[in-house]
Every structure is written in structure tokens, then in C-alpha cells.
Amino acid sequence: MSRSLERVSGRNKKIVSRIYKGLRKSLKEFLPTACALCLKNISANKFPRNICDKCLGKVSLRDVNSNLFFMEDPAEARFNFKSINVSEQFNSYYQNYTNNFYVFICTYYDEYLKNMIRNLKFHEGLEFVPVLADLIYLVLERARRCSSREFKEVLNFDYIVPLPLHKKRFYERGYNQVELIAKELAKLTGKEVINCLVRIKNTKRQSEMKSKMERLKNVENAFTFNDTAVIIGKKILLIDDVVSSGKTLWEAASVLAQNGAEVFILAITGNQKENYI
């Protein structure tokens, strides 16, 4: 099948790929569950789903004390990210800094995460949605067990908000991969997903920007609030797949905060370390 796909180009290739994936989905209940990375058969009841223990062991999950960062406005700060020890330092930072945001990063951006996210975003690899949602839940629960009382309160969020795509990119891709992950995470946490952000600026990909200034300008005023949602006084978990400079997430979080929400940001992956610029 893969060789025949290679002979098809452009739009036809995408159509054939979708038909093939649709057939796979319809036959799923009759086929054994396979690891999304190595295709080895695994138990249908395994958690995390769709990934074998060997491949899971190769994913660079962050240690509980390297998950949390304090993010200042990327346009103003020399150091955008400050590493926070969730069991010791969180309370003092939480009390002293209320106009900026905390970012919880689940994994390092290694080759395994890179391949999963690229396949999901650009090659319709929907089998990676439950893998990534389960990894988020796994790391969040581990942090909940090890962290301070104040940080546990933050993890007790009311709603999950996925970072939205612009309508043009949504049309091109056919789905928002972050929204799909958010819906799977909602099933695990019992929380509701609300789409209260609208992306009004069709930005270029941040990875294509050559300088920090270009990245800042690219996503400036990119989001607005869907005023049919009521989030005043609510704790929001804003999620995205990859965090780099943090500007995109900062812009989105600022809109939510301006509309009365307490915002906590979660990214599946990123290579931020202590005092990351």
C-alpha cells in the first residue's frame, strides 16, 4: 500500500490516504491493537494507549521538578522561562507574579515526540492522539502526587481550552490536532473542552521565523475571545503541542486572562531548561 501511495501525487495522494485511513478505522475492531510507533501488537487495554512499553521507555518524559516554568512576556523579558520546583518554590512565585503565566511542559522534544507530532499534524496520524493525551495525563498525575498544596490547586482546573488554528489552516488540515488531544484528555480528567478562543490572524509557522523579533510580530494580536463563553473566575488549562519562544501561547493566555480567567498553560513538549531564552 505504501508503494502505491508514492505513485500518487498532490491532491489525489491525500484522498487515497484518507480512504486508506478510513478503511483502517472501520476495521479497527477486527484488528489487533498496534503500537503507533513500531507497529508491534499490544493489549487493547494498555495505558498509555497505542504505545508499547519499549517505545514508551524511549520517550523523554520530564522529571517532576523540570516540568514547570514561569513565563514572562516574551516581548519584555530577557529570560522568557524560569524553571520552578513544584514542591518547593511554587507558592512564592504564585504569590508574587500574577500578570504572567506558568507553563507545564510534559516531555523533552526528542526524535520520538517530533515524529509523533509531525505525523499527527501533517500526515493524518490520528493514532497518535490517544498516545499524547495519555502521556499528558500520566505526567500531570505524577506532578499532582509530588507537588505542593498550592500547585495541586492549579491542577484542579475547570475547563480545557485548546490553542485554535486559523480557519484557513483548519480547512487545509481537516482538523485541529490540539483540539483532538484536548477531547481525549477531557475524557480522562472529567473536564469540559471549550473553544472560547478564535484565531483571527493567519500566522506563519513560528518555526519558519528566523529571529525572536519576527516570532513576536508574527503572532501579535493573533487571537480574540468568543464572547459566548463565560470564563470569569474559572481556572483554564490552555494546551498546545509544542512550545518554543512561548509568544503564541502568551498571546492566547493573555486574551483569556483579560476576560476574567485564571490561566495555566500546558505544552506536550519543548526543550526549555533553566533560564531559557
UniProtKB/TrEMBL annotation:
Residues in Phosphoribosyltransferase domain copies: 197-269
Cross-referenced InterPro entries: ComF/GntX_DNA_util-trans, PRTase-like, PRTase_dom
Coiled coil: none
Pfam family, one: Pribosyltran
SUPFAM superfamilies: PRTase-like
Family: Belongs to the ComF/GntX family.
Protein name as catalogued: Phosphoribosyltransferase domain-containing protein
Species assigned in the record: Fastidiosipila sanguinis
